[in-house]
Design brief:
The protein is mainly α. It has one domain (4-79). Helices cover 81% and strands 0% of the residues. It has helices at 4-21, 28-50, 56-79. The protein is globular. The chain starts with a helix and ends with a helix.
Length: 80
């Protein structure tokens, strides 16, 4: 159970980030879910650097979504 919740949250965050970034479905659903999970790590790191903390359920979605947006942007730059 401890692993399922972060995967679900990462999946939702990756999906939302893919909708925000637009530009096609380059990575597929599984790719965006993986980017959302990794985005949680990146988002926590980036927000920690600037001392920004979002608490509650909103922070649980916004933090990995912000990280996933950064990762999607980087992946698209590398893919070009």
């Amino acid at each position: 159970m401890e692993l399922i919740v972060p995967i679900l949250i990462g999946g939702v965050a990756g999906y939302l980030a893919s909708r925000i970034m637009k530009g096609g479905n380059r990575f597929g659903l599984i790719g965006y879910i993986l980017l959302g999970i990794a985005g949680g790590i990146v988002g926590n790191f980036l927000f920690g650097l600037v001392g920004f903390v979002i608490a509650g359920i909103l922070g649980t979605i916004v933090t990995p979504m912000a990280g996933a947006i950064v990762l999607i942007w980087l992946a698209r730059m590398i893919a070009k």
